[in-house]
Model the fold of this input.
Amino acid sequence: MLKGLTAAAAAGVVGACSSNDAQVFVSPEAAATAAGAGTTLAAAGATAAESMGGAPLPASATMTIDFTFTAGADSAGPGPARNPYIAVWIEDTNEELVSTVSLWHMQQNERWLGELKRWYTVSGGYETNTGATRVAGSYTVRWDGKGREGTKVRAGTYFVCIEGAREHGPYELIREPMTLGTDPVERAMKPNGELTAASAKYTV
Done:
């Protein structure tokens, strides 16, 4: 197994860390509602030059990402389903990491972090934007429109990525493009496995 080199500083998640998951996140089925509502599909297929050559995003630009994780029965062993490892991040059209929005994993044992296969590949396994695992449910995380260097990225096409992996459970990845600029855009993303609903809303 690959070994991650993460730090245990929680950021990028709506709410602060707590021993009580119900107190950490308010989950009014936002992801399910957004996924079922009519949304404006973002344009896709821009070249890498287009994604990197625009003006910086407006200072007020943010993206809200909603998703629902619904754990199925464990494939082995008794007891409740294990909490999933979850990564939410933004990639550019060169398949390079722009920003890790949120990363949830068992911080006492990072040797399984490589099970988040795509995030681990694009990030190199190192990120400070982390938090503890969460029980199945609906969650909201937010991206401030900034890259790893701390400044607003340029207008263009980016990929919103949500990845989940669970011990004795399946692996899933949602990865869809959105074109970001001076206009708001909203997208319902295609569910995958235990990631049963997801949406992204960009506002300026």
In short: The CA atoms of residues 5 and 126 lie 5 Å apart. Residues 1-51 have pLDDT under 50 and may be disordered. The domain at 23-203 is CATH 2.60.40.4070 (Immunoglobulin-like). Strands lie at 62-69, 85-91, 97-104, 130-131, 137-143, 156-165, 171-180, 185-189, 195-203.
